[in-house]
């Protein structure tokens, strides 16, 4: 490792620890400090972003081999996925809690496991759907500056039955 690169990584670690001890959420720290560059190794990503909450394998058609999940905030309004290729190099870091990502899900095809591979852990398990027979998961997100809830509902066999988004009712209370 080159000395300059070593000091850069060491500085990032110290800076992230300071921000987190001051009460910043990791998402705020990542947004303020920046994401690791494409091509970074797993150890460089871990140094910049910390230990991932979970590791997800990707299906062959998505263009990456696996993801590291970084959910942030008490309700997880941002979840970052660090996407790696087969050589364990970073391709990109995506903020996945968006209506655009929700639109990539395939009703009747995706399962609870594949939905978690795409969106990460849900913010809330809203219980069993009376219509479809499976659980409904809610993800708290932001869209165009508004707080929204992305919901996915599964059928009794665990396949995705429906997905959609709505304004977070707490958002209206906050604005009054």
Polypeptide structure, described:
The chain has 176 residues and is α+β, with helices and mostly antiparallel strands. It folds into 2 domains: 3-95, Beta-lactamase Inhibitory Protein, Chain:B, domain 1 (2-Layer Sandwich), CATH 3.30.1450; 99-175, 2-Layer Sandwich (Beta-lactamase Inhibitory Protein, Chain:B, domain 1). The protein has 6 helices and 8 strands; from the N terminus they run αααββββααββββα. The strands form 2 sheets. Strands 1-2-3-4 form a 4-stranded antiparallel sheet, sandwiched between helices. The chain has a 4-stranded antiparallel sheet with strand order 5-6-7-8. A hairpin with a 4-residue loop joins strand 5 (124-128) and strand 6. The radius of gyration is 18 Å and the shape is globular. The relative contact order is 0.12.
Brief description of this entry?
It is built from six helices and eight strands. With 176 residues, it is an alpha+beta fold.
Q: Which helices and strands occur, and which strands form pairs?
A:
Layout: H1 3-21, H2 26-33, H3 42-49, E1 54-57, E2 66-72, E3 78-84, E4 90-95, H4 99-102, H5 112-119, E5 124-128, E6 133-143, E7 146-155, E8 160-167, H6 169-175
Antiparallel strand pairs: 1-2, 2-3, 3-4, 5-6, 6-7, 7-8
Low-confidence stretches: 1-27
Second-tier CATH architecture of the largest domain: 2-Layer Sandwich
What profile does the largest beta sheet have? Answer: 4 strands, antiparallel
- Spatial strand sequence of the major β-sheet: 1-2-3-4
Number of helices: 6
- Overall body shape: globular
Overall mean confidence score, pLDDT: 82
Distance between the termini: 54 Å
SSE class? alpha+beta
Number of domains: 2
Strand percent estimate? 25-35%
CATH class of the largest domain: Alpha Beta
CATH topology-level fold name of the largest domain: Beta-lactamase Inhibitory Protein, Chain:B, domain 1
What is the helical fraction, as a range of percent?
A: 25-40%
Q: What Rg is obtained from the alpha carbons, in whole angstroms?
A: 18 Å
Element-by-element helix/strand order:
HHHEEEEHHEEEEH
How many strand units? Answer: 8
């Amino acid at each position: 490792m080159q000395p300059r690169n070593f000091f850069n990584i060491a500085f990032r670690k110290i800076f992230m620890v300071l921000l987190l001890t001051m009460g910043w959420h990791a998402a705020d720290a990542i947004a303020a400090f920046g994401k690791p560059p494409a091509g970074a190794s797993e150890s460089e990503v871990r140094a910049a972003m910390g230990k991932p909450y979970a590791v997800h394998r990707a299906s062959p058609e998505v263009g990456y081999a696996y993801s590291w999940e970084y959910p942030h905030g008490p309700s997880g309004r941002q979840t970052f996925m660090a996407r790696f290729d087969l050589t364990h190099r970073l391709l990109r870091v995506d903020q996945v809690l968006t209506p655009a990502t929700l639109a990539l899900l395939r009703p009747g095809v995706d399962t609870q496991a594949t939905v978690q591979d795409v969106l990460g852990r849900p913010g809330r398990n809203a219980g069993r759907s009376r219509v479809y027979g499976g659980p409904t998961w809610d993800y708290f997100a932001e869209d165009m500056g508004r707080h929204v809830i992305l919901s996915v509902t599964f059928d009794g066999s665990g396949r995705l039955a429906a997905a959609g988004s709505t304004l977070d009712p707490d958002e209206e209370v906050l604005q009054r």
